Structure formats: C-alpha cells, structure tokens
Amino acid sequence: MQGTGAQGSERRKELGLFLRARRDQAVRAEYGLPPIARKRERGLRREEIAFLSGVSVTWYTWLEQGRDISPSRQVLESVCRSLHLSDTGLAYVLSLGGYATAAPSSPAAATAPAHVQRLMDALDPNPAFALFPDWGVAGWNTAYAALYPNIAKVPAPDRNLLWLVFTDPYVRDLLPDWDVTSKRFLAEFRAETGQRLGDPDIKYQVERLQEASPEFRAAWDRYDILGFESRERLFHHPAVGVLQLEHHQLSPSDRPDLHIVVYTPAPGSEASNQMQRLMSGPG
Fold first, then answer.
1. Is the separation of the CB atoms in 157 and 216 below 8 Å?
2. pTM for the complete prediction?
3. Is the pLDDT of residue 249 over 90?
4. Do the Cβ atoms of 191 and 225 come closer than 8 Å?
5. Which letter, b or e, does each residue of 188-210 get, where b requires 16 or more Cβ atoms within 10 Å of its Cβ?
6. What is 5-96's CATH superfamily?
7. Distance CA 39, CA 45 (A)
8. Does the structural domain 114-280 have CATH classification 3.40.50.300?
9. Residue 274, CA distances (Å) to 84, 124, 164 in order
C-alpha cells in the first residue's frame, strides 16, 4: 500500500477497520447466503469475502488488520465489488490505498481569503460559509450569522462545523432532524478526510469529539461514508419558524482546499421572505 510513516499507518488502519465494518453490516440474503449462528442476518465471514474477491483468506485478513501490504488497484476494486460498495465507497477505499490524489493540506491562514469573503458577502441574503479541509469555519456572510448567531461568539479553536453540530445545543435545536443530519455530516466528513486521518488537525478534531460526544463516538464507530449531494434542509429558527433551504457546495478554482456552502430558498417555500425578515432584525 502506498504511503509510509504515520499517515501510511493511519490509512492502513482506517482501511482495515472500514472493510471490517462493511463486512459486518453486509446483508447475507443479498448474497444468497443463509443466516449464521443465532439467526444473524447481517455479517459475512472473512472466508466468504476472500472467496468472492478472488484472494486468499490470509491476505484478506492482513488487509483488515492494517498490515503493511501492497494491494493492487484491481484487487481493491474486487473487494469493493464483493462488499457491494457504492461509488463513494470505492473512491474512499482507493484513496486509502494510495490510488487517488492526496487531499490538499490544511492552509496556514485562519480565515478565508478576501476574494472568497467578498463572494460570500455578495450571496446575501442567502446564508453562506466557507470550510477548510478539517471543516474549520473559515468565514461566513451576514445571512449565515442571522441564521446561526453563535458563529461569531464561538472561540476560534471551536469554530469547526462538526464540533458545533455535535456539541452546540443551539445547533441541535436549529436542526429538527438533527439525528439524521448529524450522522450524514459525519459520513461526509469521513469520506472527505479518510486519507488524511493522520494529519494533526483532523486527528485533533476526531479525538476531542470522541471525548465530548457519545453520539459522535457511536456514529464514528459505524464507519459510514457518504458523498456530498445538494439537498433540501430544514432549519427551525426561533424568530421566523421553519425555513426550507437547499444545501449546495462549491469550491473556488484557485482555492480547491475551501468548500463554500450556500443555502438557497427551496422552490415553493417562504424561505426568501423569512431570511429577509431575519436579516432586518426585530420590528
């Protein structure tokens, strides 16, 4: 497997744990296999996945154990097919195996560059904010501050989207579907950062969230991954009620390390008027 040192070791470990989790969660009936002991309908044996993938049981065991071996791209693709992984799952496994371009390193700057901030400001009254690779919030516009007033009050080290979602009571109240949304964010975060779990910024965020949030810890141990998809989101704001917004994401071509998240009014909703009222303040 490509990659040496601490990052290579972290990627091998992540790959092994991810494959094990997917194997444990596989539905046996989808493979035409009967339940195993105690009528367990989920979970495949290592022998079964190794056979389906055309590799030896010993080799596949080493892969799950995170040993320093060098699987080919073709073999990893075969394992992914055997586990019925999605395209996102395939890309994730290949990235951990060293067959994808490394994600950009976290920038040294603490805030978004001026031209990115001007772009977000121009998007008012649509809430917008920018994320660094570790999901640290790099900047935001006035509309986002109206939607989530705490953003300006949070200490800079805690200004991380995943940290806020799992630890800020205001965010939990803001999201009527918090249980679903928080797990989706975590799955997207893992898909984006898996090959960089050894980076200090990523490792720091994961370790402190594991200590601070039982919900994060339980969801993290499931090894779910999801690619980003634009979608409708609901926000329950105490001043204007429930807003229906569409969640979009883009990256500037000159700053691909940044993700700009934009919320636009959902078709047929009152979100545009609600955001105008919210930004105009009391009265």
1. no
2. 0.78
3. yes
4. yes
5. bbbbbbbbbbbbebbbebbebbe
6. lambda repressor-like DNA-binding domains (1.10.260.40)
7. 14
8. no
9. 43, 13, 24
